[in-house]
Amino acid sequence: NAGVTQTPKFRILKIGQSMTLQCAQDMNHNYMYWYRQDPGMGLKLIYYSVGAGITDKGEVPNGYNVSRSTTEDFPLRLELAAPSQTSVYFCASSSGQGLGNTEAFFGQGTRLTVV
Amino acid sequence: GDSVTQMEGPVTLSEEAFLTINCTYTATGYPSLFWYVQYPGEGLQLLLKATKADDKGSNKGFEATYRKETTSFHLEKGSVQVSDSAVYFCALDSGGGADGLTFGKGTHLIIQP
Lengths: 115, 113
Prior knowledge:
The complex is a heterodimer. By secondary structure, chain A is mostly beta strands. Helix content of chain A is 0%, strand content 49%. In chain A, the strands form two sheets. In chain A, strands 2, 4, 5, 6, 9, 10 and 11 form a seven-stranded mixed sheet that branches. In chain A, strand 5 (43-51) and strand 6 (54-57) form a beta hairpin. Chain A starts with a strand and ends with a strand. Chain B is globular. Chains A and B meet through strand 4 and strand 5 of A and strand 6, strand 10 and strand 11 of B.
């Protein structure tokens, strides 16, 4: 049972480049989330989705875009990478309404460095 | 807005020592409270949770009691092991809505043999 799978695990980008962080879950969860984790800080919500075709902004959405064409996949797009986007990115999913009511499952993270 | 404050780390203890990691929160309403653990190189895993005042969450020897009067949810373990070395995050969900959890900054715990 794979759970939540993120790819790639590591990536170095140059300023201005674009990339997509992939996230897939095989648990048929409706709710999916993208967080970033900066050193010494907690996790900040970037975007979330309550089902296929529905996405919404979190606390720190600037510089990112998402799509949710299927229940399984929730990719995060960086269009013009900036050094401020250097971080560890986590994708999460849950079955119930929000992470407060049911257990959230997290991927292993993508460590992104923008130089 | 909602916020979670955790004690700063790293916290370094010897094996079999008693552990307390403090967590206090600010939230509207009656939030649910969580502790997540992140082992090296891995994502976060739910450790325990409590959904109402005076509830005690417990798992793997860890415990935390939801104290509404002190707005706290301190994590405790009676005898830590080297395998408990990880980063621990306190988090809250204030409304059960779809927009995720509010996390503290995390506390890095190091257990020495």
